[in-house]
Prior knowledge:
Mean pLDDT: 95
Helix content: 25-40%
Radius of gyration: 23 Å
Number of domains: 2
Strand content: 15-25%
Number of strands: 20
Largest sheet: 7 strands, antiparallel
Shape: globular
Amino acid sequence: xxxxxxxxxxxxxxxxxxxxxxxxxxxxxxxxxxxxxxxxxxxxxxxxxxxxxxxxxxxxxxxxxxxxxxxxxxxxxxxxxxxxxxxxxxxxxxxxxxxxxxxxxxxxxxxxxxxxxxxxxxxxxxxxxxxxxxxxxxxxxxxxxxxxxxxxxxxxxxxxxxxxxxxxxxxxxxxxxxxxxxxxxxxxxxxxxxxxxxxxxxxxxxxxxxxxxxxxxxxxxxxxxxxxxxxxxxxxxxxxxxxxxxxxxxxxxxxxxxxxxxxxxxxxxxxxxxxxxxxxxxxxxxxxxxxxxxxxxxxxxxxxxxxxxxxxxxxxxxxxxxxxxxxxxxxxxxxxxxxxxxxxxxxxxxxxxxxxxxxxxxxxxxxxxxxxxxxxxxxxxxxxxxxxxxxxxxxxxxxxxxxxxxxxxxxxxxxxxxxxxxxxxxxxxxxxxxxxxxxxxxxxxxxxxxxxxxxxxxxxxxxxxxxxxxxxxxxxxxxxxxxxxxxxxxxxxxxxxxxxxxxxxxxxxxxxxxxxxxxxxxxxxxxxxxxxxxxxxxxxxxxxxxxxx
Length: 549
């Protein structure tokens, strides 16, 4: 094998990471929708020619782990002989490389050098509306994917660096917000081109052979790091069954042997008649995120890390649904799977994993017509909540859940300017829950006052009945939920609802959970309890009752 200068290879790899981040920044600075440019509900990546993940930018971990699968599906569908320089492909279909749900649009671009395919640039972003039964394209009542919006099953969008007008016309005609969609789409296209430009600059400088070898060696390094981490885990077979909000049970199995790890998801409920199903790709990326959390290195995160990983599923189950199963709220099943896998590891082999947190995307979708601009709006807001405590630290307050990564809540000023709401409250939600030697972090309370009639609420929250799980004698956390406070003062509680009618003056109150505690509460240090009382995190009465203060 030819020897390459390791310093040069490292420079190339870091340059690829920088290119992925530049792609991310391009979308952030040019997208139309606040869920992209404020919340950062997107992801970017560069893959090897065969589709293996080579580097990634910031963004949602679930999205980054989805992009290599989209590239591989396009390679499988079109074949290398039918992929040309100047092509751009689009998919949003979870059964055709879209992985997640129809709102998440994946764009990928092959990168050629001297007529050879050497890499792919890829990105994904949440589009506000892609048709379907209701505005926002996410309906809790959907029983088939056809009701959730238009499907783009790994199609060609560009040919010879020119947009295919008929495809673009179809895309825009199938959205209630075509101007926003059009702007977001072109932001993604620009990012693909930025990534391609940076790759070609690298190859011009270092040569094609050195560039390709750099990717191959970094993938091998990822495989080596994963093997070393897995080899340090205790060998054995571990199983966990956990009750869910609806009374059903989810089960997982994990087997660790030498340097390899197997996740068994075959003991799963049948695929659901509602919109909470996962495609095989979605379950795969969930397991990959758990493994990357165990590895604990963002720098080495690439496809090589997954070469020692085996995943077992059963077709036509909630973890391996088949079309036309609905998947609009896939993310709540994904976070449930992610959370139960983390719990299984935490209770058996990985003491560095914290106790359970609020563990829900807490998707809050408000829509209607802005009373000031008379334009239709849809605000799609993931919410922040409390994380569980660890063996030497309290849980984190007001943070997105584990699969949601480098995202942000939409600022009140932006929500009030762009949408038909007033954000009247955004505060920590202090609950008498999550006690321990180290206590759970707190969730939030957010009040959205509706400013126009004929508005609506759609939401999807889990951990609404079964609270976060503690470790080592800690106490459970609290639960997630939404209250609708009507103008007449009456209140209604929800965790899942679709198209709920809202009128001017109604308040939608988001309440997210406190994470669970770690360790015996009676072992909590007096100085920590003093700080909690001083900061208003616990009352004196609660401190006496639970902590023996």
